[in-house]
Each structure stands twice: as structure tokens, then as C-alpha cells.
Amino acid sequence: MAICLTGELLTSRAEFWASLLSSSASPVVGFFVRLLIFLSIVGAALLTIAMWYFWFGFDTSSWIKKALWLLPLYLLVPIGPILYYFFVYSRNDLLRKGLTIFEKDRTLAGASLS
Fold it and tell me: Does the pTM exceed 0.90?
């Protein structure tokens, strides 16, 4: 969502300047663009909050790595959480252990039902 937000913000600025040049912009298109931007902002905010929560509570990296990730998370709000998600969160051992335990529980539950 945050990747979409970055692209949509650039696109909406281009659309704004294009609408100033030609006054034939449809209100329906404007509504859907605003709706898409709003949903992207909400998604980017949720991703940012989730990555900060993980950074504070569950990240088992050294303090140097956590300190280096502080700047992108804080200063590069649309892009920083995306990078943190792909480079730290998705590669974390706690997440992988949790997924394997969930899959084992799910297969055991499925086996007991049949």
C-alpha cells in the first residue's frame, strides 16, 4: 500500500496540473482518485505503525542495526517502512517460527476434523 501511495501522490500531482490546463476533468474520476489516495494513506499509516511496533518490541537485531533503521523509519515515512518490511521484518526468525507453528497447528486441526 505504501508503494502505491508514493506512486499515487506523484500521479495525483500530475493530474492536478493537467486538470488546471484542461477543465474537462470528470468528478467521478476525481472521486475515485481521492478514494484511492485515502485508502493508500490508511494502508501506509498501518504499515508504519506495525513496523514501529515490531522495531520497538520484537526486533532482535543488534542495537547498531536498530539505530541505523531508525532514520529511514522516521524520516522516509512512505518508503522507510516498506524497506524495513522487506529487509528486516520478512526475514526475522520469530516470524518464521510463528508461521511454522501456525502451519503445524492448522494441519493438526485439519487432521483431527477428518
Answer: no
Residue-wise pLDDT tens digits, 86-110: 888 887 777 677 666 656 666 655 5
Identify the H or E element spanning 31.
helix 27-57
Please count the other Cβ atoms lying within 10 Å of the Cβ belonging to residue 89: 18
CA angle (81 as vertex; 95, 4 as ends), nearest 5 = 110
Whether residue 94 contacts residue 60, with contact meaning beta carbons closer than 8 Å, is answered with yes
How many whole angstroms separate alpha carbon 83 and alpha carbon 80?
A: 5
Produce one character per residue of 22-32: b if its CB has 16 or more CB atoms within 10 Å, e if not. Answer: eeeeeeeeeee
84 class by beta-carbon count within 10 Å (0-12 exposed, 13-18 middle, 19+ buried): buried
**Spatial CB neighbours of 7, under 8 Å, sequence gap ≥ 6:** none
Rounded Cα gap, residues 88 and 93, in angstroms:
10
Task: Extract the C-alpha cell encoding 33.
Answer: 482518485
